[in-house]
Amino acid sequence: MTGLEKILKAINDEAQLVADKILEEANRQAQEILAAAKSEAEKKEAQIAEKAELDVRDIMNRSESAAALQERKILLETKQQLISSTIAKARSSLAELPALEYIEIILSMVKKYAHDSAGQIQFSAADIRRLPADFNELLKNALSNRPLAELTVSEKTANLDGGFLLIYGDIEENCSFDALFSAEKDTLQDKVYSLLFAD
């Protein structure tokens, strides 16, 4: 091997060593970059997974709250319907009572609502037909402990579905079942609620 060949071989060998070192360094840096990228990707993946889990939990909590609110609303509406239905049935059952029981209720209402003065009591046409022949006497007996309270049955009829009107000159007091139930609506709802839904 000539001197030139030796020099060329030495340059070639040196170049190969430098190339190998550069390639080795490049591979090492590529591995570091790849490892850093993988680590960053894992961190990002963990953050995304954590955020997704928090989002899912948040959505679940909101859904559960909305469902609970809807359940309470439906339950309240159902209770209101049951209360209204019960009061309506009680109201209609009064008008459908047998004549004797109905008259007893009318007389107890007269005792409660009659004024201590002379006046008239006005019924519906249907109730006039239900009154017993001795109703005026029953009326008088009902008010016997109140000498100033004097009622006579009016010949005119009222458009009522149970109950009566008390008429004292220009003053008319509505004692129909509808009026009385309407006036006591809140009290009745409270009582029915406690009966139906007492714990």
Protein described:
With about 200 residues, the chain is of the alpha+beta class. It has two domains: about 1-95; about 100-195, 2-Layer Sandwich (hypothetical protein PF0899 fold), CATH 3.30.2320.30. About 70% of the residues lie in helices and about 10% in strands. It has six helices and four strands, in the order ααβααβββαα. The protein has helices at about 5-95, 100-115, 125-130, 135-140, 175-185, 185-195; strands spanning about 120, 150-155, 165-170, 170-175. The chain has a four-stranded mixed β-sheet with strand order 2-1-3-4. It is rod-shaped and about 155 Å long.
Question: Which characteristics define this entry?
Answer:
hypothetical protein PF0899 fold, alpha+beta, 199 residues, 2 domains
Q: What CATH first level of the largest domain would be assigned?
A: Alpha Beta
Q: How many beta-strand elements?
A: 4
**Uncertain ranges:** none
- Helical stretch count? 6
Number of spatially distinct domains: 2
Q: What is the H-and-E element order?
A: HHEHHEEEHH
CATH superfamily of the largest domain: ATP synthase, E subunit, C-terminal
The CATH topology of the largest domain turns out to be: hypothetical protein PF0899 fold
Q: Which strand-content bin applies to the residues?
A: 5-15%
Shape: rod-shaped
Helix content: over 70%
Mean pLDDT: 83
Largest sheet: 4 strands, mixed
User: In CATH terms, what is the architecture of the largest domain?
Assistant: 2-Layer Sandwich
